[in-house]
Amino acid sequence: MGPADLEDIIGSLRPFKHEGNGGKAPVVLIGPGDDAGITLIGNTAIVETVDVITPVVNDPFTFGAVSAANSVSDVYAMGGIPVTALAIAGFSSCDYEPVVLKEILSGAVHTLDKAGARLIGGHSFDDPELKFGLSVMGTVDKNRILRVSGAIDGDVVILTKPLGVGILSTALKGGKLSDEDMRRAIEWMLMLNDKASSAASSAGASACTDVSGFGLLGHAYNMVRNAAVDFVIDSARVPVMEHVFDMIDRGMVPEGAYRNLKFNEAHASFSQDVGDERKLLLSDPQTSGGLLITLREDKIKVFEDSSLFYAVIGSVQRGSGRIIVK
Ligand code: CO
Ligand code: CO
After folding, report:
1. What is residue 17's predicted lDDT score, i.e. its pLDDT?
2. Which of 16, 127, 217, 257 is the least crowded, having the fewest Cβ atoms under 10 Å away?
3. Which domains occur in the chain, in start order?
């Protein structure tokens, strides 16, 4: 879901009794602070999440498709399956023809089709800056919820997509990268985390989240904060998209990567030989990034036996909620 500060405020609010529901509040299984909220209605566990982004590519259909993949990702990060979605669009009719909105929505529906989910409504508002996203509802087996916390000493840390889309889309906007060079990165963003999510469930993952706006290290920190474990990340084993280091050299680094790095420096310790370029890569905000999963080492076999892309990027050890980058 959204920025940690918003989630923290929601978590601090006093819950209230809902008289209209016979005085019974729903059973909240997962509240603010995870990738999505989960409530139990009867025997069904309902997953809900919302995410809205600004364009990361030029083509409106592709933008809608990427944004939808990004929004459903939080359902997969909880081990769930998306069912329905509502569209949210910030749109200026002075700057764009209505056909642009239709293209964006068609792209979103294209992605939702692949996810087996349906778009059942939406809301738009006037906004000088184009924004689009989805609120997604899904279901999850209440005994197989993948939580952000729960990593266990001795686990391995797995990442299921390479990093760098924030840097590459900055380079695209800056005219330093061609649409053709961006094509592979777009394919990664369009890829759903559905199979990675099932593999994580089958492997009995101890924790799982998706890498999005806070970058790899920010989301890794969310997994260990307030826990008696540390992550040891082997930065040389973190997979990277093509052209990314070249683009960092050319200054194509999004504002968000610097902001994330500043935050990360408070919770992470970096080995001397981890250079600034790599620190920025590990802090690069991702759109529709991969899943970050912790599981027992002998369960990696589930990933080995699948056709999924994955990399073992580190391990979990006893500690105090820190990220150690080597
Ligand atoms: Co989210
Ligand atoms: Co998330």
Report:
1. 52
2. 16
3. 5-140 (3.30.1330.10), 156-325 (3.90.650.10)
